[in-house]
Amino acid sequence: MGLLALGTPLEWRDAKKAADQVRQWGIEQLLAIWRRAKGKERDVLRWGDEIEYLVVAYEYQQRKVKLSLRQADILDALAKDVALQKQGGCVPELQNIAREGEPLPTFHPEFGRFMLEATPGKPWGIGFKDLLDVEPNMKWRRTIAKEHMEPNEYPITLTTFPRLGTRDDFITPYYPPSGDRLRSQFLPDEIANPHIRFPTLAANIRARRGRKVAINVPIFQDEHTAMPFQDPTVDYDLHKWPEDDDVRNGAAKEDHIYMDAMAFGMGSCCLQITFQAKNIIEGRKLYDQLSPLGPILLALTAATPIYKGFLADTDVRWNQISRAVDDRTPEELGEKPLHNDRWRLPKSRYASNSTYISQDPRLRKEYMDPELVVDEGIKQRLMDEGMDDLLATHFAHLFIRDPIVIFGEDLKELDLSKTDHFENLQSTNWQHMRFKPPPPDNSIGWRVEFRPMEIQITDFENAAFSVFIVLVTRAILSFDLNFYIPIPRTTENMETAHARDAVLNEKFYFRNDPLPPRPAKASANGHASGNTTPAAQPSRPATPTGPVEDEYSLMTIDEIINGQSSPSENSTKPFPGLVPLVESYLNSMNVDVQTRCDLARYLDLIRKRANGRYWTAAKWIRHFVRGHGEYQGDSVVSERTTYDLCMAVEEMTRCEGRSGEGVGWEMFMENKGMTRKRKGESACG
Ligand code: ADP
Ligand code: MG
Ligand code: MG
Ligand code: MG
Ligand code: MG
Ligand code: MG
């Protein structure tokens, strides 16, 4: 979550007054970075993943599971051992699980006090061998995290805790709602990381907005779900905070699960991948080309079918986080005429991204977002200093937002060797792609972060999706692939990805032909057999003409991942498929047989997730709940079901740890009922 500076945070009233100063100083810091780093060259490919965990605590006797709020203790214990190990000391817990030559992973705090984040101890390099180190490293991280927990505590990788915000005691230690910062009727302030930044973020978002955030998720209508559905956990008679009026003013929508605090969104776990590009040009290209893949990977990784003890009619977390940090005022939302605020804002500060930034002749102006809001003054300032229109537009768009958490101490003097004011805006624009400039010391290059994916239950899956995205970036660069579609189509795709089983039932806008135009010579000398050897072709980016609408069509995820058997109506060539493109890339790289086999396991998961053979976690969790003995067909996810679900997913992470010893992944998935052909429940090992 960006920088964790210490100091005195301003309440919203005062923060609002300092907003312009922070923006201006942030832009000056950005210009300083840009001047220093715009010509930075020959950075090597590096990349790194981030895994987020929920920490759950079992009460075995009562068959209950709760969220553990011991994040700080666990992180302290981890940090001590990591430091000890670095000094060559012997850490008893880590002695048996140390991995030679691999630095210990790094653990980070997150918004939820029940969350942990873990990254590899050093970023991964370009080698194919590194791709194979990811999964063992992820498993290792989980083991190390577990070693620093109580015997009844476990790190699990569900995106959300199924019963967060119910009326029962779902956290340990227990705190009752509600507190001054969140003013939630469901959650105590203690649910958030106590570091002053986090409660201030929540309080100031609420204050800026003028009411609590409102998250309404459509209820899954099952056989006995009483429709119209009124969320029975909502209390309309509270009078502790002015915000208790929200529900009386219609904040809770009929047929929806209603939530009212930042933690319901920012308490979700995801899987993020950051890439370092060789220079700013390559970084800008990756940013653009990965952007249209965002909604596709969101739907493929769908893992979020439950909120606040109810089955939802959606499968992913995205919109809920978006609403959980939506600080827009009624004027910005278009509910009132503009009077105090500067503009209408079509999107939350957590949303799919709205800019393309690559100076690529293939980028047509028709692809840009016609609803894009930019701060023209800031854009002008950036351009006056020599930044080009596209990049200036990108940052001038991020800087339409107010800084939310401002520390009084930081307003005394502008320090151009720091990036705190720039990061203040940058790190609270939670878009599905993030363009990360090099830090001041320039040791790190221009980076691009891919942020839409949901965390997966097992590290096999987390590794598979990480490796897949890395290979896609290699294919993009090596074949000069073109995935451009108009930004509003990506925005629509993001909505589409929310539908239940979107991965199987929905269609997404995608570019028909990602390959550069084929030189006449190449087709004459045997490269005509489909798309197996695009590597052989020199890239020739051409400025396209013709109607933009003819460049893309609606495709299923199966077609996007595995390829079309026949072309879309408005196209002459079938879309080759992302996995076949990755395989062409691997073919062109002469990867050794063993590595190729190992990587094939990951590609196989992606392929079969897309064609429906393997279920998404969302589908499996929904199935698990509906098949549970306590389920009444009324969309309610009981405490006991939650306990059994957490036990099952935790068991899954342990079982798949042994997959190399004979429990094949596919067999394992089948045993768990996670494939199309369902078999009975069976334990592993
Ligand atoms: P944030 O939370 O701001 O996105 P983190 O520091 O938590 O960033 O994680 C970013 C990821 O980037 C980690 O996996 C880390 O290993 C990786 N990383 C670190 N340095 C580089 C680099 N130079 N290039 C690419 N990735 C890097
Ligand atoms: Mg983070
Ligand atoms: Mg961070
Ligand atoms: Mg991080
Ligand atoms: Mg994180
Ligand atoms: Mg990140």
Descriptive labels:
single chain; about 675 residues; 9-stranded mixed beta sheet; 23 helices; about 10% strand; globular; binds adenosine-5'-diphosphate; binds magnesium ion
Overview of the molecule:
- The protein is α+β, with helices and mostly antiparallel strands.
- It has 23 helices and 17 strands.
- Strands 1, 2, 3, 4, 5, 6, 9, 14 and 15 form a nine-stranded mixed β-sheet that branches.
- Strand 3 and strand 4 form a beta hairpin.
- Residues 522-538, 657-665 and 677-685 have low confidence and may be disordered.
- The structure holds adenosine-5'-diphosphate and magnesium ion (5 copies).
- One magnesium ion binds at residues 50, 52, 110, 117.
Structural class: alpha+beta
The Cα radius of gyration reads 25 Å
The percent range for strand residues is 5-15%
Biggest pleated-sheet summary: 9 strands, mixed
What are the low-pLDDT stretches, counting only 5+ consecutive residues below 50? 522-538, 657-665, 677-685
Mean pLDDT: 91
End-to-end CA span: 38 Å
* Record field, number of beta strands: 17
The unique ligands bound to this protein are:
adenosine-5'-diphosphate, magnesium ion
Rough shape?
globular
- Helix percentage: 25-40%
Count of DSSP helices? 23
How are the secondary structure elements laid out?
Elements: H1 12-37, E1 46-59, E2 64-68, H2 71-86, H3 92-95, E3 106-108, E4 115-119, H4 128-147, E5 153-156, E6 171-172, H5 197-209, E7 215-218, H6 245-248, E8 256-259, H7 263-266, E9 271-276, H8 280-290, H9 294-300, E10 306-307, E11 310-311, H10 318-324, E12 350-351, H11 376-384, H12 389-398, H13 420-426, E13 430-431, E14 433-436, E15 447-450, H14 459-479, H15 487-496, H16 502-505, E16 507-511, H17 520-524, E17 552-556, H18 557-562, H19 578-588, H20 593-611, H21 617-626, H22 639-656, H23 665-671
Parallel strand pairs: 2-6, 12-13
Antiparallel strand pairs: 1-2, 1-4, 1-5, 1-9, 3-4, 7-8, 9-15, 10-11, 14-15, 16-17
